[in-house]
Amino acid sequence: MESINAFRRALAAGQFCLGAAVTFSDPLVTEALAEAVDFIWIDQEHSPLGPEALHGHLLAARSRRKPALVRVTAGETAFIKPVLDAGADGIIVPQVRTVAEVERAVADCRYPPRGRRGYGPRVPSNFGRSGGADYVSAADAGVFAAVMIETREAVAAIDAIVAVPGLDAVVLGPYDLSGALGVLGQVEHPTVVAALEHVIARATAAGKFVGAGMGPDADYAVRMARRGVQWVQAGSDFGYLIGFMDGLRQWVRTQLGGGSAPAGPAAD
């Protein structure tokens, strides 16, 4: 649990943390990205990552001592419990709308009496070698519980959401929030910016960390940091891949005047 505790200490000390999202199944993706980031965001909401692939990514993150936060498909027990039992350092629940949803998700992250998490932590307890009361106490203290604020209802309920005991962070989803506010894709629209800044202010006042998920846009990441966002997932594996290759191809073609590559030496 040292990696997630170090992540939490960095945020508390005012350090901005940058992360990458993983959607491909090969754990070498996490292994390759880990050196460049402060955390790994494993995305199950928008990818077909199954349990076996998830285990591989968590193992890779653990070997590189980077916290692994999993954005689950939804905030129900069936999605949260197996991810934590597989060794995830934290959970990110998307598309919350009500305080009750947040309370249920937070309860699923911690054992009784603080929550309602069922006991069966295979990986976190070293396959049962270090389970029991000491493990439960450490697990409850260490798990990072976050919910995404990307709906109109969640913005309206933000004061009650950030008051939920055991919630560590809220995570802004600017693109989905822009859609919920009727201006899909316009993340710098005044209505969207006002909503983002309202959430940041209320969460910060309540002592909650504020994160954000976004595409691989460095300028936007900086703008969000300057607004008060403390940790950002900026893009994902496939975005880095196609973004670099698209840029490389365009640069090469531009250097060659937009034509094809020069012919090689004639064959004998």
Kindly report the average pLDDT value: 94
Helix percent reads 40-55%
Low-confidence stretches: 264-268
**Number of strand elements:** 8
Radius of gyration, whole Å: 20 Å
Name the shape in a single word.
Answer: globular
CATH fold group: TIM Barrel
Largest sheet descriptor: 8 strands, parallel, barrel
Structural class: alpha/beta
What name goes with the CATH superfamily?
A: Phosphoenolpyruvate-binding domains
In sequence order, what are the helices and strands, one letter per element? HEHEHEHEHHEHHEHHEHEH
- Please give the oligomerization state of what you see: single chain
> Strand order of the main beta sheet, please?
1-2-3-4-5-6-7-8
Structure description:
This protein is α/β, with parallel strands linked by helices and 268 residues long. It is globular. The protein has helices at residues 2-12, 28-33, 51-63, 77-85, 99-108, 133-142, 152-156, 158-161, 174-180, 190-205, 218-227, 237-255; strands spanning 17-22, 39-43, 68-71, 90-93, 144-149, 169-172, 209-214, 231-236. The chain has an eight-stranded parallel β-barrel with strand order 1-2-3-4-5-6-7-8, surrounded by eight helices. 41% of the residues are buried. The longest helix has 19 residues, at 237-255. The model is unreliable at 264-268 (pLDDT under 50). The protein contains twelve helices and eight strands. It has one domain (2-254): Phosphoenolpyruvate-binding domains (TIM Barrel, Alpha-Beta Barrel), CATH 3.20.20.60.
